[in-house]
């Protein structure tokens, strides 16, 4: 029986697509000197509601140590700030600053332009189908 080529595995295809998306996204936001992780954090915090580190880690797909390092960098740049939760002073909430809001507005334009290029390449129908397939995959396939 012939060996299966690696490119036939779904895990490989998803990893390859993720790599291409990350490279394109990194190039589109490079002018702001932020990483993809920083963009995700700022994008989530842009609603100005503040988030606990646990909620934020889940929303931006980072483990706690990685999130803490990224938040430290964003605090140092004045893009986000930490504050005690008024309801529970033992808990820390993370909020976006005014500078963070200005930055995320510029980032959003760059990210939207990057996504528009992808949609242009795939076409709106295939882009919509891909999003739906990925959402189904995320919702239905449980990690073991």
From TrEMBL:
HTH marR-type domain: which residues?
A: 7-139
- Gene Ontology biological process terms in this record: response to stress
What InterPro entries does the database record attribute to this sequence? HTH_MarR-typ, MarR/SlyA-like, WH-like_DNA-bd_sf, WH_DNA-bd_sf
Gene3D superfamilies reported in the protein's UniProt record: Winged helix-like DNA-binding domain superfamily/Winged helix DNA-binding domain (1.10.10.10)
Listed A to Z, the keywords are:
DNA-binding, Transcription, Transcription regulation
Name of the featured protein = MarR family transcriptional regulator
**Which SUPFAM superfamilies does this one have?**
Winged helix' DNA-binding domain
Q: Which Pfam families match?
A: MarR_2 (PF12802)
Q: Which domain of life does this protein belong to?
A: Bacteria
Q: Which GO terms describe its molecular function?
A: DNA binding; DNA-binding transcription factor activity
- Does the keyword Transcription regulation belong to this entry? yes
């Amino acid at each position: 029986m012939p060996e299966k080529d690696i490119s036939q595995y779904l895990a490989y295809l998803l990893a390859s697509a993720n790599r291409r998306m990350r490279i394109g996204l990194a190039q589109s936001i490079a002018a702001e000197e932020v990483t993809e992780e920083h963009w995700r954090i700022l994008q989530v915090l842009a609603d100005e509601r503040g988030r606990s580190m646990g909620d934020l880690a889940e929303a931006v797909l980072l483990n706690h140590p990685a999130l803490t390092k990224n938040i430290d960098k964003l605090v140092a740049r004045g893009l986000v700030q930490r504050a005690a939760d008024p309801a529970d002073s033992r808990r820390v909430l993370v909020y976006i600053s005014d500078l963070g809001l200005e930055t995320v507005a510029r980032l959003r334009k760059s990210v939207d332009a990057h996504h528009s290029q992808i949609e242009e390449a795939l076409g709106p129908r295939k882009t919509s189908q891909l999003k739906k397939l990925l959402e189904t995959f995320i919702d239905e396939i449980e990690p073991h």
